[in-house]
Prior knowledge:
Layout: H1 4-19, H2 23-40, H3 43-68, H4 72-93, H5 108-116, H6 120-128, H7 137-167, H8 175-198
Helix pairs in contact: 1-7, 2-7, 3-5, 3-6, 3-7, 4-8
Amino acid sequence: MLSTSAIALLAVGILVVLITPGPTNTLLAAAGLRQGMQRSLPLIAAELAGYLVSISVWGHFLAQAAHAWPWLPSLLRVAAGLYIAYLAVDMWRAAVALPDSTQQASGMRTLFVATLLNPKGLLFAGTIFPAVAFTHLPAYAMAMLMFACLLVPIALAWIAFGAALGSGKLTWLNPVKMQRGASIVLGVFSLSLAWAALH
């Protein structure tokens, strides 16, 4: 089973990565903007299914590959840290824009495929989830249950954010400040990943 410290690190990692803007979160917010909160709720199941498939496939592949290349997990942590640092810098420089409300709403299939191909899946499997989650079923079940429990409220928040934008309730929101705050969180997280990989 997972230790208390491993559970805490897993929870923090899941929260930080899931909450940051990306293709899936943008689609969720856009759906909330276009079709409202209630009609967008089924998309959460599509996101969860996409991540479960992606994380499981990547995790089992990496668990097998680590036997042949023992240095692979450390390399992945460094690469993930660099990728997140890149995302932090990119997010600082460019505001995340939601698609126009007149565009067609994303369906379940679109959101599932976008999540399945989202680089966050590899990040979760190779860096955030402990390696034992892909070799022992109880650890896998616990990690996935925690993931699902954290994903649902975060997805709801992104949909609600889009719906609030659509209703005009967030006129006070400064997207640049919001994005820069998120980029700082990402930057700190990337440093912690690099530190963990090198020590």
